[in-house]
From TrEMBL:
Gene3D superfamilies: 2-enoyl-CoA Hydratase, Chain A, domain 1. Keywords: Signal. This is 10540_t:CDS:1. It comes from Racocetra fulgida. PANTHER family: PEPTIDASE S41 FAMILY PROTEIN, RHODANESE DOMAIN-CONTAINING PROTEIN. Residues 1-21 form the signal peptide.
Length: 554
């Protein structure tokens, strides 16, 4: 019953080529010598490709205008048909946010006037842990002040949050908890998806007043190779092991969440809501275990808890809804709607007629916010709701809550826990995306205090990014187009070439405290700000101690 419904991002057009060692595109094979060389390396099972070899291959691929036009037209069709934020993205950012308003359709047309380049690779620089560089300050990168270089990169080249502070945090490496361990998260500055213009990058380091340069080559790790994986696992913190983080003791590991005690309070780490690759039984087990973890804290008489949602990339909206209900059984989740277009209307009709249980496009998946009951018909769900967004008149469906009752039926009914907004605090580094954002934004609206860590000095910034609704992708849309005869007139315009993949947010969520405010565009700064230092970057427990200070009743 658990559906794969994802909430990922606000942005945008992601072209992904899956890249495996078997990857040998046929036209590369036959036409292009430079790429022939790359494919031969791949066949040998190499761990990574050289910058120069990769660049030569990219540069040799001729621009195919026909394919570019077809792709762009299909992308436009999908975004116009389904992307919830297409219009509002044209509006100036709310104070606190830093992004360029964008008319995606116009930008896509402009793309056709430029040279098209294939950019589909992870690139990292070839680094090893060099004991001589630990705790050194990076003063310059390629001879420019390091802070400026990272800030500009975060401003122009990272698109995961509308808040520049959050983008800055994710440009740098941080720790996220993974399977029984902590992994390195973020580091988008050094883990590129686009081939850099120069083959190397140089850092000027200040180590106890000794100043020197190091230069690193960019390399292209091959997915699945041993070189690829250690990027995320290379770093180990001496403050963290399987049973403790600093002075905090692990009392239970529930995989999606982890439970610690520190002094007289509890800490719950929520690392993900992502159910990709899990079967229904596993999802049920992880959520059942989460209840066990909370029970253990309650049984120990813990009266205060720090909820750490740092480095949480989101996932399944149902998992998010469930977490909200575990903590606050009597509050609603955020209401949502979807854009009404010819394409989405056709989908709503077909998928409602087919009664695909729980689907975004099935009107039976919702509870009307107006009458607090299910909708009686497709027409009632679609309604006639017009809004002005980005200067345009647009239509959206009637605002509604997702009705999760069927999914929740297979999950444990949580007991009544002793905690309220008076004895919880939320901690994040702003890198709490999509479904994670929906959880913490909702809790903040019932006055759970929020603390964000990192960012720029004296700038209180977002504790969450990209509160949206369900994300669909080009493959799912294609599947529906092939499945339902009545959608066949849309198929010719909306099926993206098999090797391309586009995701887009289809539903937007609204604040409950301020019902006309679309959460995606609403700047919500944390109540308090903390900073990383050499200690807290390696030992999250020192942030937990600081966050605990902000719990209301002591
Ligand atoms: C990388 O380049 C070096 C020399 O520049 C060469 O010896 C090596 O074979 C290349 N390796 C790959 C995987 O391209
Ligand atoms: C360009 O792309 C089109 C559409 O994908 C394809 O039919 C055509 O063969 C391509 N042309 C070249 C020269 O590769
Ligand atoms: C970052 O974005 C800017 C503006 O789009 C672009 O000119 C630059 O090449 C990008 N830099 C990197 C490192 O990708
Ligand atoms: C999240 O990342 C920060 C650094 O940005 C790190 O210090 C912290 O330990 C991480 N927290 C969790 C819970 O993963
Ligand atoms: C580091 O390299 C740059 C040139 O890339 C040079 O200007 C600078 O003097 C070097 N610094 C040291 C300490 O070697
Ligand atoms: C983890 O670290 C704590 C505190 O440093 C120590 O007491 C404990 O024995 C360690 N546990 C393991 C499994 O290494
Ligand atoms: C952990 O506890 C010890 C002993 O109370 C204390 O000296 C140390 O500073 C604590 N560590 C942190 C990170 O708070
Ligand atoms: C949720 O859906 C179930 C049927 O799946 C229905 O019985 C119930 O009334 C709905 N709840 C609300 C509040 O709309
Ligand atoms: C397809 O559309 C026709 C005409 O609108 C309608 O009668 C039929 O029920 C639809 N088929 C399905 C499977 O919804």
């Amino acid at each position: 019953m658990m559906k794969q419904i994802y909430l990922i991002t606000f942005i945008f057009v992601i072209f992904i080529y899956s890249f495996h060692s078997q990857w040998v595109p046929s036209d590369f094979d036959t036409i292009i010598d430079e790429c022939q060389r790359v494919s031969e390396y791949l066949i040998t099972g190499t761990d990574y490709l050289n910058y120069s070899d990769m660049k030569a291959c990219y540069d040799s691929i001729p621009f195919n205008k026909t394919k570019a036009v077809q792709t762009i037209e299909t992308v436009k069709e999908l975004l116009k048909g389904f992307y919830a934020f297409l219009d509002q993205a044209k509006e100036e950012p709310k104070p606190g946010y830093t992004f360029t308003p964008i008319d995606l359709i116009t930008e896509l047309d402009l793309l056709l006037n430029k040279d098209y380049s294939y950019e589909y690779e992870f690139v990292v620089f070839d680094d090893t842990i060099d004991p001589n560089t630990i705790d050194c300050q990076v003063t310059h990168i390629d001879d420019k002040p390091a802070i400026d270089v990272i800030t500009e990169f975060a401003r122009n080249n990272i698109s995961n949050s509308r808040d520049l502070n959050v983008r800055f945090n994710t440009a740098l490496a941080s720790l996220a908890f993974g399977n029984m361990d902590f992994l390195v998260y973020g580091q988008l500055f050094s883990l590129r998806q686009k081939l850099p213009t120069d083959p190397t990058i140089s850092y000027t380091l200040n180590c106890n007043d000794k100043i020197f340069n190091i230069t690193r080559e960019w390399i292209v790790p091959v997915y699945g190779s041993k070189e690829f994986y250690p990027i995320f696992t290379k770093y180990k913190s001496s403050y963290i092991n399987e049973t403790s983080v600093g002075n905090a003791s692990l009392i239970f590991d529930a995989i999606f969440s982890r439970f610690y005690t520190l002094q007289d309070f509890g800490v719950v780490l929520f690392s993900t809501e992502d159910t990709t690759g899990l079967n229904t039984d596993e999802v049920i087990r992880f959520l059942t275990d989460m209840i066990v973890g909370f029970k253990l804290l309650a049984d120990k008489g813990i009266t205060k808890i720090v909820l750490d949602f740092s480095n949480n990339s989101g996932g399944d909206v149902i998992v998010a809804d469930y977490i909200i209900k575990v903590l606050f059984p009597n509050i609603n989740i955020f209401p949502e709607d979807i854009k009404v277009t010819d394409a989405s209307t056709a989908f709503i009709e077909e998928i409602s007629n087919a009664n695909v249980v729980g689907d975004l496009f099935n009107y039976r998946s919702y509870t009307s916010t107006i009458k607090n009951n299910p909708f009686d018909s497709i027409n009632e769900f679609i309604g006639n709701n017009r809004y002005t967004r980005g200067g345009a008149q647009v239509k959206f469906t009637t605002k509604a809550f997702r009705n999760d009752s069927l999914d929740f039926q297979i999950l444990p009914v949580p007991p009544k826990f002793p905690w309220t907004q008076e004895n919880m605090v939320i901690l994040t580094n702003g890198a709490c995306f999509s479904s994670c954002a929906n959880i913490v934004q909702r809790l903040a609206e019932v006055s759970v205090p929020t603390v964000s860590v990192g960012g720029f000095p004296n700038t209180r910034f977002s504790f969450a990014s990209c509160s949206g609704g369900t994300v669909k992708d080009s493959n799912i849309i294609s599947t529906y187009l092939n499945l339902y005869q009545n959608l066949s007139n849309l198929a010719s315009r909306s099926i993206l070439s098999q090797d391309l993949f586009l995701t887009f947010t289809c539903a937007e969520v609204y604040s409950l405290n301020n019902p006309d405010e679309v959460m995606e565009f609403s700047f919500r700064q944390a109540d308090y700000q903390l900073y990383y230092n050499e200690q807290s970057a390696r030992d999250p427990s020192s942030l937990w101690l600081q966050a605990e200070q902000y719990i209301k009743k002591r």
